[in-house]
Amino acid sequence: MNCSNCGTPIAPGSSRCLKCGAAVQAVAQAPQSPQAPASAPASGGHGGLAVAGLVLGIVALVLSLIPCMGWLAFIPALVGLILSIVALATAGKAGRKKGMALAGLICSIIALIWIPVYIVMVLGAVSAAAAGSGFHP
Fold it and tell me: Which pTM value belongs to this model?
């Protein structure tokens, strides 16, 4: 802190300036407001499980539509389904939004339904092509 009269630095706890003898005026410090921790989650957020379930549901849905790769979508669809169900169950208790968890659940269910349909279609096409070509294993 400096003297308000001459600008000389004043030692903490001194009542007068050593150079000019002026009385030191106490400067009141404004109290600092407590801050919330940065890691505290927002009360209305979606939660990590809902986001993960939605991402895996979308990945499974896209993979299930790719020719000759549809069967690879089974694992992300199953994991996305489980994560979305858990996120829906915990969202009600924690007061969070359920939209992302519900969207992940729907994407995962559609992918899980489409995968066997796709496999049956591919096997039917392969057997029809084999029957039409005269090849009999």
Answer: 0.59
